[in-house]
From TrEMBL:
Pfam families: DUF3800. InterPro entries: DUF3800 (IPR024524). This is DUF3800 domain-containing protein. It comes from the Bacteria.
Length: 282
């Protein structure tokens, strides 16, 4: 069998198209699914680097993006450190990620833009956003696997029985039926056929936050999502600078079909289409 490319995916934001009527939307209202791709044989090096970072900072619990960003939970101690000490931690964390043989990849859906585009068109019959994001993220990762002459094995973070069953059904449908989108409106992306997807998508497994690779997927996903709104967001711009995103290794021709997908971003959608803007940050 061909060697494997591993895709580790996490998700950020609610899977529902609509928020509750009284719910205050966040500054950036999105649903994102993605994380990183890594050649199977490089995983041991990634786990060793993760372990070394945790040892340097006396961490024996998962690296959780939300807690790190807000100095909360297990990372409440960051709030008690000096600004210089906090900066040292963040710099070490980024340097560790930058040293890894991984690339970030994701699909990010702007919720207001999605509703503006599809609420009336598919009234009462809209998918959960995870169906769209999962299909797009896997297809683009499958194209990377084909380019490396590999098959794709997917590791998703376990969210719950119902949520995990949904991903299993999406995975099976991709292999059996191909991409779930309207062929006429998605033709410009040259969607992969069911035969090609079946030949490339090898397996889907679930991991918990105890998995070092799942933790790293979590750490990469949020910057990729916010980068769709603000390409100068520091964590995102550093990933671009150090070429840790798949976009940084694609040609202008391949970017729309293989790069990070920013869906329904309206004006912001230029980030997915405009290679020059990305490369200027590198």
């Amino acid at each position: 069998m061909k060697p494997l490319l591993h895709l580790y995916i996490d998700e950020s934001g609610s899977r529902r198209p609509d928020r509750k009527p009284n719910e205050q939307p966040p500054k950036h209202d999105f649903f994102a699914m993605g994380g990183l791709v890594v050649n199977e044989e490089n995983e041991e090096d990634v786990m060793a680097a993760h372990a070394a970072f945790c040892a340097r900072w006396d961490i024996d619990y998962p690296l959780h993006s939300v807690d790190i960003r807000h100095s909360a939970g297990n990372f409440k101690w960051l709030y008690e450190r000096t600004p210089e000490q906090r900066q040292e931690f963040y710099a070490d964390l980024h340097a560790t990620i930058a040293s890894l043989p991984v690339l970030g990849i994701a699909c990010v859906i702007d919720r207001p833009g999605y509703n503006k585009r599809y609420a009336a068109l598919h009234e009462g019959n809209r998918w959960k956003l995870c169906k769209t994001a999962f299909a797009i993220c896997l297809e683009r990762s499958a194209r990377l696997a084909i380019a490396r002459d590999r098959k794709l094995k997917v590791f998703a973070e376990a969210c719950g029985p119902k949520e995990d069953r949904a991903l299993k059904s999406y995975f099976a449908a991709l292999r059996q039926e191909g991409m779930p989108f309207n062929p006429s409106t998605s033709a410009k992306y040259a969607p992969m056929t069911a035969e090609d997807l079946k030949g490339t998508l090898y397996d889907l497994k679930f991991k918990t936050k105890k998995s070092p690779l799942s933790q790293l997927a979590d750490l990469l996903l949020f910057p990729m999502a916010v980068g769709g709104y603000n390409p100068e967001y520091k964590a995102y711009s550093l990933l671009v600078r150090d070429k840790k995103l798949v976009d940084c290794h694609l040609t202008a021709e391949d970017l729309p079909r293989c790069g990070i997908k920013y869906s329904c971003f309206d004006a912001q959608e230029r980030l997915a289409e405009d290679t020059e803007n990305k490369l200027q940050l590198a």
